[in-house]
Amino acid sequence: MDADIAIVGAGPAGLAAAVEAARWGGRVVVLDENERPGGQLFKQIHKFFGSEAHRAGTRGLRIGEELLAEARKLGVDVRLGTVVHGLFEGRVLGIISGGHTTTLRARRIILATGASENALAFPGWELPGVMGAGAAQTMMNLHRVLPGRRVLMVGAGNVGLIVSYQLLQAGAEVAAIVEALPAIGGYEVHAAKVRRAGVPILTGHTVLRAEGAEQVERAVVAAIDAHWKPLPGSERTLEVDTICLAVGLSPLAELAWMAGCRFAYERTLGGWVPMHNEHMETSVPGLYVAGDLAGVEEASAAMEEGRLAGLAAAASLGLMPQAEAKAALAEVQERLEALRAGPFGEPRAAAKARLAGQAVQPAQPHRESGTGFPACPPTGGEDRPESQPHIVIECTQEIPCNPCETACPAGAITVGEPITNLPRLDPARCTGCGKCIAACPGQAIFRVEPAFAPGRAAVSFPYEFLPLPRRGERWTAVGRAGQPLGEAEVLRVAMPAAYDHTAVVTVAVPPELAAEVRSVTRRAASQSSDKR
Amino acid sequence: MRIREHPILGPAPERRPITILVDGVPVPALEGEPIAAALLAAGYRIFRRTTRHGRPRGYFCGLGRCTDCVMIVDGRPNTRTCVTPAADGMVVETQVGVGRWGKGTDHRGDAEGTEGSP
Q1: Rounded to an integer, what distance in angstroms lies between the CA atom of residue A340 and that of residue A334?
Q2: What is the pLDDT of residues A502-520, one digit of tens each?
Q3: Which residues of B touch A129 (CB under 8 A)?
Q4: To 10 degrees, what angle do helices A299-316 and A60-73 make?
């Protein structure tokens, strides 16, 4: 036997599995076809949601660095540039490495091969300049190359929203985001970030075609009716050189198919998924799955599933005491459940239960976000005297996230259990220090000081673009939809190391705009130095 | 276009500048970056052409799965440029159809022979 446990894929799930298994003395080998470990984790430069236990509020790439360091410390054998091309009888992996083929036998195998982006066919989709949103993200965040200058994003799920924001951070323009569904599928806080940066989100719209002789030169978009048919006369031509597709992910399940795993179709998890029990073991004994292959979710869930698979595999080999294994597995499962709570997570939790063959009640009618009930309005601060500085929390959906709670030194913000609760602000305790502003991964917290000076209010907001505003400069204040509202004088730019590159910018604006201003832009900035 | 400054990632990490040959033209690259990154940074978007109609194809999935970005690299056709690291002096050629083995094959003759594409 070449290894106790062989893991295919060195992404968040695979590395987390390796760490758990190696902790108990298992000989663990991780195989990955890429030249770098970490899967897609190192291109996730935004602050993650989740709870303290999930390193919430930490950027994905830093979580990746920690995970990798831990795996190396435990002596995990990570083999990069190594393609696993097959899974054969007797748990033998077929491998191609350095241009040669070989095999590796292991007592347990964990597949953590991830997912790939779905494509979308439309006239011109094959032109250079049309690419996956994740492909664009890889190019700009890993390789530091801008894949295009002016981009149309197709799809307003979390991937489309996050990559749009990151395209802006990298210096590209995003002409628009089109979403065929009547509502935004991703988190409202992600949508809010791109909106106030001036990007229109067109729901009920699709891309009709890409135009250009040798590469993308334009995109034509149109509104669609309830039957997904373009509405005549609604066509609009956008001058773009790049079209990014963010229309979902599908599990990379070839090896699991090859091994003869039983599969089930779960739309919320990305399509055909290998069935697995609550400890991630498939219908093939000794073969485990974890991460996006086991159902497309986000990196935090992938890591927890990896931990489950690693623990379960180690326990099944007798590497760890049964009682300890049981307790450890239960603890991870509890954290996973927290990640799958709330209106976004519940359909996934139900799908996972079905995959494990558990009897579940028929799925409750679940509202697509943005339809049905209206979103909860922003909370906080209203009952303070108007002149007092106060915090406004514009977090209106039940997503699993609580860094604001721990960031507050005064204990004024409560999320509690489950972590999908909306944060509650206790105005009596809030000192208005603003530490929560940079901590919120959704960038949904603001500080408003209505009577900062005679005739002037101050607004503080998070800011993650270059160039950073500087004290004394005059920028254009913008509202929640990125609309210009007037002139803003920059009062302060705070970016201590603890904020990890999120600046908290404070600007002075006319008092009547204090409730509207949520960011600034250089677009159409007035040349107003004469007024100073 | 290279992203030199970034609000989260800071300045681009230092990497050794190298030169690759793209259809005979020297193109600056950084050692170890994917060939596709060097090409996009230098403004190249067409990586290969289809057999019958000579239609252009380029970077699409960035994961080494879709094979839209394959080129002839050091004489090896169907090399996935999005996952193949660039090395100094590497010979990279636009691929037509399934390509041919060997450096400096007359790929440009092939391309010109298809529907007058450049």
Answers
A1: 10
A2: 999 999 999 999 999 999 9
A3: 45, 58
A4: 20
Q: How far is residue A174's CA from residue A408's CA, in Å, rounded to a whole number?
A: 34
Q: What percent of chain A has pLDDT over 70?
A: 92
Angstrom distance (rounded) from CA A354 to CA A266 = 9
- Residue A162 confidence (pLDDT): 97
pLDDT in tens, B63-87: 999 999 999 999 999 999 999 999 9
Give mean pLDDT, residues B31-45: 97
Question: What is the Cα–Cα distance from A15 to A8, expressed in whole angstroms?
Answer: 10
Angle (nearest 5°) at CA A194 between A192 and A196: 65
The partner residue sitting opposite A466, judged by closest CB among B7, B32, B36, is B7
Q: How confident is the model at residue A359 (pLDDT cuts 50, 70, 90)?
A: low
User: What's the pTM?
Assistant: 0.92
Check CB contact under 8 Å for A145 and B40.
yes
Q: For residue B47, what is the nearest residue in chain A, using CA coordinates? A: A128
Name the residue facing B56 among A128, A141, A468 (closest C-beta). A128
Burial A490-522 (b: 16+ CB within 10 A, else e): bbebebeeebebbbbbbbbbebebbebbbbbbe
Distances (CA, A) of A119 to A59, A177, B61: 27, 16, 9
Model confidence at A51, pLDDT cuts 50, 70, 90, reads: confident
Q: What is the structure's pLDDT at A50?
A: 84
This complex has an ipTM of 0.91
Close Cβ partners of A483 (under 8 Å, ≥ 6 residues apart): none
A401-422 CB burial, b ≥16 within 10 A, e <16:
bbbbbbbbeeebbbbeebbbbb
Query: Two tokens at A90?
Result: 């007797």
Residue A52 is predicted with a pLDDT of 72
Question: Which pair of tokens denotes residue A474?
Answer: 């005059």
Instruction: Give A73 to chain B, closest Cα distance, Å.
Output: 25
Task: Tell me the sheet residues that pair with A111.
Answer: A8, A289
- Picking from A423, A445, A422, the residue whose alpha carbon sits closest to that of residue A434 is A445
Give the ranges where A424-502 is alpha helix by DSSP (H): 435-439
Residues of chain A positioned with their CB less than 8 A from the CB of B57? 126, 128
